[in-house]
Write a sequence for this structure.
């Protein structure tokens, strides 16, 4: 691709997820079947102000004469552009994967609650387990990247212990909760 991607640098575009999702749709990484992301795909631009009659009568140039130059990003070299596209694809993939994981967890919790509201103890346990697992998975990833087998094994053992603890807590919760 030889053309630059102006909306990643241009002022007036929302940074973060919207630009990522918009480019992900443009690149075909995310399909239109994902309805939640489809709503975010349309760019949201502010309308440009029009020149007033008094300004045009006074001989002033139209207000949008230099406006396009201000919103155009400097050209990027192809290597930078490709790296940026790959980063955006990876980010879009992470967003889609996280959404799927949340949906699976939501379904499991709904089955566990049998249509009742969220129990405060259950909510606290789910948050604690999620934080611990995330921290241990990150520690394992860092140890793996550094090729530290001892720390990788330690993180895996701790992850198994946390999963066992959580499974025990959940079994006790299900046993004490009456089904409706």
């Amino acid at each position: 691709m030889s053309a630059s991607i102006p909306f990643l640098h241009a002022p007036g575009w929302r940074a973060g997820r919207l630009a990522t999702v918009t480019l992900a749709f443009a690149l075909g990484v995310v399909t239109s079947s994902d309805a939640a992301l489809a709503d975010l795909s349309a760019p949201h631009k502010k309308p440009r102000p029009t020149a007033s009659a008094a300004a045009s009568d006074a001989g002033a140039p139209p207000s949008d004469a230099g406006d396009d130059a201000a919103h155009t990003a400097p050209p990027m070299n192809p290597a930078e552009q490709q790296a940026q596209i790959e980063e955006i694809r990876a980010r879009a993939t992470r967003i889609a994967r996280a959404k799927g994981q949340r949906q699976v967890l939501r379904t499991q919790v709904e089955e566990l609650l049998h249509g009742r509201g969220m129990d405060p103890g259950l909510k606290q346990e789910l948050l604690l387990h999620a934080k611990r697992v995330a921290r241990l998975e990150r520690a394992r990833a860092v140890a793996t990247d550094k090729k530290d087998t001892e720390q990788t094994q330690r993180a895996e053992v701790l992850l198994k212990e946390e999963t066992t603890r959580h499974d025990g807590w959940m079994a006790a919760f299900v046993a004490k909760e009456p089904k409706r």
